[in-house]
Amino acid sequence: MKIRLYSRIALLLLVLQLLVVLGSWIISATIPETNMHSLISSEGLRWYSSNFVDMMASPLLIWIMLLSMAYGCMRGSGLLSVFARGYRMTYRERTAFIFMLFVAVAYIIALLSVTVMPRAILLSASGNLWPSPFSVALVPILTVGICLFSIVYGIVAGSFHSVSDVFTSLSSGLAKSTPLVLLYMLAIQLYYSVCFVFPEFAN
Fold first, then answer.
1. Averaged over 13-22, what is the pLDDT?
2. Which of 38, 55, 68, 132 could form a disulfide with 177 if both were Cys (CB 3.0 to 4.6 A apart)?
């Protein structure tokens, strides 16, 4: 069901991309006085080929991958099932959950020590929390915390028996996010194409 939805969204993005390409060419050719750039031109082809990698390599792509790894780690450790309605934990799972809470408290205290204390290292030069190095790294900090809690829970609960189990859970999360990465690539390409064709839109 999800794959069917993803495929329809991908088709829509491809159609919109094609409309932008053809529309920019037709309008710029028939109405040259418009402030519109054509993607089917020497300028457009040079822009597309030289900026393709930069278009793809945005923080959003890294966030998708990091959050996917965190999801896979939670799922593989069994921690995700704990929050399901009606789920009853075993004694070992309750012990693992309590142990995980202690680790979570220690992690939060460590974060507070580098963000809240005077002259904390993750504050901005003016002492603000937003924007600051902490706000820029908020998603990585969140995902590292989720992975840490999941690994601790999985080890104590017996879901993870070796490093390979942890690696497999992280990899499974990335595999689950493959359709989202593809949609991201199509969407970000469409966005930057529109910004190139309509310069005022980018401003």
1. 93
2. 68
